[in-house]
Amino acid sequence: MTVEVIAIGGYEGVGGNMTAVKVEDEVIIFDMGIDLGNISEDTDIDRMHSLDLIEKGIIPDDTLMREVDGKVIGIVFTHGHLDHIGAVAKLAHRYNAPIIATPYTAALIERIIKSERKFKVENPIHSLKTGNKIKLSDKITLELIRVTHSIPQATIAALHTHEGIIVYAKDFKFDDYQKTSPPPDYDRLKSLGKQGVLALIVEAINMDVDKSKASTYSERVVKLILEGLMKRPLVEKKGMLITTISSNIERIQTIADIAKDSNREILFLGRSMERYCGLAESLGILDLPSNAKILRRPKEINEALNKADDRREKYLLVATGHQGEPDALLPRIANGKTPFSIRPGDTVIISAPIIPNPINKANRHIMEKKLRKSGARIYPDAHVSGHAGREDHRDFLKMLKPQHIIPAHSYLSMLSLYVELAEEEGYRLGRNVHLLRNGQAQVFNGYE
Amino acid sequence: MTVEVIAIGGYEGVGGNMTAVKVEDEVIIFDMGIDLGNISEDTDIDRMHSLDLIEKGIIPDDTLMREVDGKVIGIVFTHGHLDHIGAVAKLAHRYNAPIIATPYTAALIERIIKSERKFKVENPIHSLKTGNKIKLSDKITLELIRVTHSIPQATIAALHTHEGIIVYAKDFKFDDYQKTSPPPDYDRLKSLGKQGVLALIVEAINMDVDKSKASTYSERVVKLILEGLMKRPLVEKKGMLITTISSNIERIQTIADIAKDSNREILFLGRSMERYCGLAESLGILDLPSNAKILRRPKEINEALNKADDRREKYLLVATGHQGEPDALLPRIANGKTPFSIRPGDTVIISAPIIPNPINKANRHIMEKKLRKSGARIYPDAHVSGHAGREDHRDFLKMLKPQHIIPAHSYLSMLSLYVELAEEEGYRLGRNVHLLRNGQAQVFNGYE
Amino acid sequence: MTVEVIAIGGYEGVGGNMTAVKVEDEVIIFDMGIDLGNISEDTDIDRMHSLDLIEKGIIPDDTLMREVDGKVIGIVFTHGHLDHIGAVAKLAHRYNAPIIATPYTAALIERIIKSERKFKVENPIHSLKTGNKIKLSDKITLELIRVTHSIPQATIAALHTHEGIIVYAKDFKFDDYQKTSPPPDYDRLKSLGKQGVLALIVEAINMDVDKSKASTYSERVVKLILEGLMKRPLVEKKGMLITTISSNIERIQTIADIAKDSNREILFLGRSMERYCGLAESLGILDLPSNAKILRRPKEINEALNKADDRREKYLLVATGHQGEPDALLPRIANGKTPFSIRPGDTVIISAPIIPNPINKANRHIMEKKLRKSGARIYPDAHVSGHAGREDHRDFLKMLKPQHIIPAHSYLSMLSLYVELAEEEGYRLGRNVHLLRNGQAQVFNGYE
Amino acid sequence: MTVEVIAIGGYEGVGGNMTAVKVEDEVIIFDMGIDLGNISEDTDIDRMHSLDLIEKGIIPDDTLMREVDGKVIGIVFTHGHLDHIGAVAKLAHRYNAPIIATPYTAALIERIIKSERKFKVENPIHSLKTGNKIKLSDKITLELIRVTHSIPQATIAALHTHEGIIVYAKDFKFDDYQKTSPPPDYDRLKSLGKQGVLALIVEAINMDVDKSKASTYSERVVKLILEGLMKRPLVEKKGMLITTISSNIERIQTIADIAKDSNREILFLGRSMERYCGLAESLGILDLPSNAKILRRPKEINEALNKADDRREKYLLVATGHQGEPDALLPRIANGKTPFSIRPGDTVIISAPIIPNPINKANRHIMEKKLRKSGARIYPDAHVSGHAGREDHRDFLKMLKPQHIIPAHSYLSMLSLYVELAEEEGYRLGRNVHLLRNGQAQVFNGYE
Known about the structure:
The structure is a homotetramer of 448-residue chains.
Chain A: E1 2-9, E2 18-23, E3 26-30, H1 50-55, E4 71-76, H2 82-85, H3 88-91, E5 99-101, H4 103-115, E6 125-127, E7 133-135, E8 141-146, E9 155-161, E10 164-169, H5 186-195, E11 197-203, H6 219-235, E12 240-244, H7 249-259, E13 265-269, H8 271-282, E14 292-295, H9 298-310, E15 315-319, H10 329-334, E16 347-351, H11 358-373, E17 377-379, H12 390-400, E18 404-408, H13 412-424, E19 441-445
Parallel strand pairs in A: 3-4, 4-5, 5-6, 10-11, 11-18, 12-15, 12-16, 13-14, 13-15, 16-17
Antiparallel strand pairs in A: 1-2, 1-19, 2-3, 7-8, 8-9, 9-10
Helix pairs in contact in A: 5-12, 6-7
């Protein structure tokens, strides 16, 4: 009896994640994500067909599943970022199987399915809490294990099979101090390690020691940093803006908590702010103070900006556009395309990294140049990563002790750095560390 | 009546600081530092003559003072780092004037004078607390203002003269949360600004926005980072080492506080650890817990390392050598030249930056390579800077509102970045921002 | 009697050059350039008023000339790049003085004046050959000295006055091996040095030793490089494209000479190709072989591309767009917006640097990604700079031996690197090296 | 029947190359190199035992050959660099098989064997010219194919077997214009491709597009560059030094040719200059002019330096030490440890890259700093690589059309970049591109 891991997408870059695990004649799919790097300005995803999107490299090429001789019995999403769930409305309907995810992730998936214009997606959606298991078949049980990332209710998935446990661990960090997410369930991870993990499919995004931390800092470090940066502008009679990643609910919570007792009204502005924050608030994950408000509709945003332009000392504007994307709010403010104008001495805090590709760098450069020209004081990069660092991954390997490892979710040269880490821990490429390309499969024989 | 600022050293690079301020016929000297970058391995500074050291660029060239027509009435040291006080024993005896510094700085100066082998330095040493003033002559009063840096009792000096106030502000950051240093005295700085600052001589070390933070983070951020990094190794049955900058007493305090309730004995090892920490402890600045000890003599260090080699889970070794300097303790441990051997799984935390010159990079590379080969887990760069960032400097200018500015303590290309900042605040190079080279002077006419 | 150098534009960045030299009551203006970095996509320069362009930082702010008490008797342009001549149609008409330039530069200026829509520019245009002098007044004689750059007929200007010689040397390299430009007139430069140069205004663009060559390579080095790169594709049955800087006539000549005996027709495509190359050809500077053609009008370009698409092995397309500017030809080809499609195995040679700003990097990245996706083989950066390197500048100083130096045409931090070079040669900032900001003036007393 | 490629050394970094190819029961070994990166200052290689050197990672770990069931019938060295031949005296005697190499490489190997102090190496040495074949057994014929690199007589090896051809191509570039080496034998490479290449083992050193050229430039490009740089100093009355890589005979030839007609005597100084150049001269590869001399013994070098110190305008000193290695000649001159002192205006040309590791960077930095302090004018990095660029490798694949590819001679992350190139050409990792780690083997079935 064998287990097969099929790399569908996300094994040759960052984005477009999709993996199938076949246990005898049954198949579980993990993630259906999009590759944001391949989307150009004029792509109207909502109206496009899967095959076009596959050709453009925007969604994973799941056509190889036709040749996989097995029945899909579940589609599992481990967290709610678009590179993991963004293709659900384009691909899920092809499989007669339920969608399974934690409640917050499930709610985000429902939203995507609702806004889809091309396909009708009717897969049932099962909400599964971390710590709980679900029996997918006689042979396979799924468990979602609590972990932390840069979005709430992120999980590591474990498939319990007769051949051993398969762990799917994409997108996580070890953070014991988030307010909106409890700490990772280290005990459970260690106990899986004792039971016997046959194979680990694991992210390898932050492996570049020169550019990342050996161990990724907690969000509470950003909290201190933001407290330091926000202290002065909160009390000054000037404008104050923060841009951050809308799905980073912990960061949103932090900003709100710091500004809670100020004399400013906190406005979270924009559609994606509303999507992630509104949902998180309705599920009781995000706890906004009474001086905070989420505004979604263009009209109400414009009215608010108009008021804020006159009485700028009374508002803290939290806007989208941390990468300088021309259509997002902060870049539009910088360009003078909204009722709110930057004035000398206004503070702009960018609580996000520059995602290091030349286009983002150009957009950020243009935005910051314009903001500075208007007299803004800019505090960039008040941020920590949501991905485990090199030494965190070593700790993870020590907990899980997998027989086999498949690093994923990055370019080959970055995956190679994970291979070297694994080799430091006694593994060996080709023997028990495996590099898969999209479309390739690795077969394991359980309990050898 | 005029005031003249004479750039003696430290205006063309980082190190070797010395400035004279002449008010009519009286002169105050600020700092007598060494330039560590020009010291090669075989330099025996203690036995060398000033003129040789001047020729090698190790100490400031104060021979130009012969041509300054005025009487030196005070030598002021604003904090205790070697690039500010290291040349005191080579230069101070030439001037018939007292040395003035805060108690901790004064104690460090006394140590240097004691170890000098070439010159007899007999200048009286006056200890002056921050917040206090001392009347140096009928026309000049010196005040030391509380500020924070990466060493205790750092100060900004203000000379009160009939022509206005001269502020000497080299080496500071704004940190409101240090345990061993109270926050900067912002109120006093603002009130100086109201009284009228004629000229500001100011450090310009962290002006490179691409490489530094817009606002330098507090030491309490490092505390959180170190808590995160130290948590696991503190309880593991493995060796644990930290290297940091001996004079960074706040950092030493942080490390001790975090490890205080662990089962490990905290050993601060080495001569320079003893110099800075021992002195800080005796002055009540540093408060070490009962499980901490400072060891200075090679013999006792060796004995301790021997014991620690056997029972490594019982010790936290805090060692010198953060830049990989071959003769310091951690590099010697890495090289197998001490009784303590690194074993697989031991943790090494480097709580210091790589000072970015090729020699340090090579030394650090060699040290880290050897540590890794022995199986150490390395956490580098758990550190924040001790120097103000670009936006902090802007805040500083808003407080002081100086008529004239002289940026100092860096290379011309870095000083230029300060000039650009000052120009953003309404100043103009050549009119009221002045670039001095070593040996040049700038004359100001007070209250124009 | 005094000479005054007035920095109007180009002293705080790269672009927008304009300098006035006042000798007693007469003024000579050097260059009227635009700052390409401040032009955004929607700027319609041809129709804009000077004051608007000044406000946007696109042309130099010459309003300060109102306060200069003297008569402008000549406007001198030392070569034909837009950052030196691009503002002529916006500014020259304000001065009742002739325009003076070498024939090629003069012809380019005439073109700009013709396409101007806002102002009527009627200054007489005098064409002056290098090696010749023109008496501008009783007191001032202008001489243009032959030098090399990346455009033909580049010059160094010398003003002969009773107070000494003023040399204006912006944009040059020392290249003894160009086909379209004779070598620099070193003898004349040395003889000026012997006569006595009062002040040198000099470019400081390539001073960063880490990023540039100590001595800038000759164009004949690029010729060898291009020969190597073009050899294979010239004979293959595939498409072949080169993009380069239209005004770099030497490079155009090199490309044509290499492809001359191939079986391909060489097509230089686009309006700016026609402007610079057509003019150079008509003046006998550029000598194109019989298998080369310059196409300007969109219609003929499209027809040619259409033919080339079918019989790609028969053409060498030389296109604009080396920085990936979206509206230029090569990026449009990459985007599939022309009748010519890139096919697998086609070769694209980029004979230009990436001008290092984030926007160019993004545009180049997007273009190269698309080209690669279509299967193109890309050879980037077959290029050498047109600006003197650090050691070349040292040689220049040794020739001219100026009493005073004003480095220009870069950011303050780069100008600082020139200051350090000058100081190595015995000069000193503030004494005989002067840093001017736009709007500032430096007064010299001749023959002190 | 199968062919097996066994990766012994050089598959996890740059250096220590050794590969075995097993065809049925017969084995051919390629290269026995050292890893210079693992040698520390106090290593006395000549006196050390193989097992110690293996443990320190200095020579390949060939102990795994004990388990290889086959008879070694030949040891082939494809060129004479130490990372390919440096371990011959430590490993070859273990195998009862002849050494085969081109004459120059063979002569270098003989020298190494002669200086060995620990082992007696008595393998017969067969000199094989490129273009010739040697029948190693009934089943295996070896052919050495002419190629270019940065040392003369570099080759690509082809093993003709019944299963197909195995090509071993480590360390080459395509350079059609070297004086001391004829162009690569492209025709033969293409004809191998037609016959059928089963597997290609290929270097992957220059794969990093951001840091290397798409196509590596010819040595004739360096010739032009050196001509440009040497022109001025050759005729000045100043000192003139060049440092380059001793084994780069083409470069040596170039330098000699440029200085041939000058009034300077060209002195090649040092033991390694003598080793490589002396040998090349005696074999008729290097053709030194009458004003050139190679000096080897310390005494004669000192005498020459003494004379050159007095009459510096009469000599061109070509010295070792391009990486600033403290014991090499140029760094010793910089340190004032020889009879020759650098004086202001002397020129130093460094015709070598900085091999990018922190130790070299530090050594170079120290050397250059000292040279500059003495007044030297430094021209660094007049160099082109000896390794094929990314597009050159693509051309190579098009010639050979191998069924399988094993990239080698670099770190995993760099090998990955080769994998991506191969995948662009239709190969696929795991199917016909294979990543081996030291100690692993890949089995091929010929003519499947």
